[in-house]
Amino acid sequence: MHTEQEVRDAPARIAAGARRRRQPAARISALVGLLDLLWVLTQSDLRFRYGRGPWRFIRWFLEPFALVGVYLVLLTFVLDRPGTDVGLSLACAVVPFQFVILTVMNAMGALEVRRPILLNMKFRRMLIPTASAMTESVGFASSFILIILMMAAYKVAPTWNVLWFPLVLLVNLLFAAAAAYPAVIFGIWLRELRAFVISFIRILFFLSPGLVPLSEARPDVRHLLELNPLSGLFEAYRAVFMFGRAPEAWQLLYPLAATAILLVVFFPVYRLEQRQFAKVI
Question: What's the domain range around 135?
Fold first, then answer.
């Protein structure tokens, strides 16, 4: 037998139980909605960058060769530069670096590209930096062909350690996405100084083992180069594709630590600033 109080509370208990049952479904639905919005933002970026015509695939395929492919071919087949698999070593640095710097450049201009929808629509603006990284991940797919070509040119066969690459790529993607948050902010605050921000990122490439592997750097500067989070990324790519071994722990953990610092510092700032985007573009 139920007491009178239990009978009165029964509708509330039934409603609470229904809400608890709906919560997982609601969360899944919200996640699907966020992923769908992210995909739409990425598609719009890709259309803006590559166009809509039938030639956009050719542009996507040839763009990395226009940026760095010619130099790599010249370095591999024409110039006699000392070192081990020089073209492949350089490709393992240039390709992940292009992912990062192009994401930053995309993010710095993302608000201008999306000006019409920022002024006329409500959507989750927190996804704009992530969409910039996802857009450049499509460009990365074509750039990755350069590494494959360099491996073939130097007759470097892949080993089982190439299975580490998805993890290395994930670290590369997370670092680029984290860098996109301050990039959007700097695109607003330092609109006239964008070229200097990009130049600073290029300087980071030369303050890392980008041109030569870390093992070939002078011992007295090697530890200084390791402080650059890009160094870990470059060396992880070389470990997987050039040396055929698993990346060392620091090569993945240090860029992840830099990713965490960028998010801790700039994510809250971005959250506050995104409310004012419609007023500043």
Answer: 55-280
